[in-house]
Amino acid sequence: MEEARCGYPGFNISCKNNINPIISLPDDGDYIIHNIFYQNQSFHISRADPFDADDVCSNSIRSISIPEDRFFLPPNQVNMSLFFDCVSVSELPRSLGFFKVVCDAKYGTNVTLSLYSYDYSELSYASRYCNKTVVLPAPVDLPGNQSGVQGILNRGFILEWKSSNCSVCEASGGKCGFGDNTNNFKCFCQDRPRPSSCAPGVFFSHSILLYLFIDPVRN
């Protein structure tokens, strides 16, 4: 049975069983959509299959791949760089020892380092002592009390989407959606769908509408 699809065509979002919608990113698997912020066209997502300590220490994490034709990271996005297969602690400069990830003894003497994108002076320095680097988005002002590298990464991150601005349509009294047979944005007004907005003072009266993502709950 084909999965129920929701959201803007091409965004690969599935909705079923009244749970949080899932977005699939190419080559990176499924992510849960926790919150949608229509005002700035962004949403908070996290991995449907969370990282664990073994992922962080076993050199199995890959850099995330984001379809740039549909999504982009916010300008203030902080990234976490994981450096794998580094030299032993005894060979590692003291300044880099601060960024060492605590791993089980079963992973041997090779070291994993964790640095943020604002650790400018140490990032290029760390690459000299490690064989592999993976870059992942880290949370930006998201609530959560998880600690450790995997806990921080599992809080997810903010992703912005590219499409027509829904706020212009809503401000004119319309509702945002898209055409039945096309992927083009539509502003649904009282008289008919329009390209971007309704005339001032006109309110939407249709009862059925395909939303951009999910009909937001209004208090």
Task: Describe this protein's structure.
The protein folds into two domains: 13-161, no CATH class; 164-219, no CATH class. It contains five helices and twelve strands. The chain has helices at 53-57, 94-97, 120-127, 148-154, 166-171, and strands at residues 13-14, 22-25, 29-37, 42-47, 71-72, 79-86, 111-116, 130-137, 157-161, 175-178, 185-188, 193-194. Residues 201-219 have low confidence and may be disordered. It is a single-pass membrane protein. This is non-specific serine/threonine protein kinase. It is found in: Membrane.
Over all CA atoms, what is the radius of gyration? 22 Å
| Helix-strand string | EEEEHEEHEHEHEHEEE
How many strands? 12
Q: Count the domains.
A: 2
Biggest β-sheet: count, sense, barrel? 6 strands, antiparallel
Strand order of the largest sheet: 1-2-3-4-9-5
Question: Alpha-carbon distance between the termini?
Answer: 35 Å
Arithmetic mean of pLDDT:
79
Residue share in helix: 10-25%
Shape, per Cα inertia axes: elongated
* Secondary-structure content class: alpha+beta
**Unreliable sequence segments:** 201-219
Bin the strand percentage. Answer: 25-35%
Summed up, the helix count is 5
Give a topology summary.
Blueprint: E1 13-14, E2 22-25, E3 29-37, E4 42-47, H1 53-57, E5 71-72, E6 79-86, H2 94-97, E7 111-116, H3 120-127, E8 130-137, H4 148-154, E9 157-161, H5 166-171, E10 175-178, E11 185-188, E12 193-194
Antiparallel strand pairs: 1-2, 2-3, 3-4, 4-9, 5-9, 6-7, 6-8, 10-11, 11-12
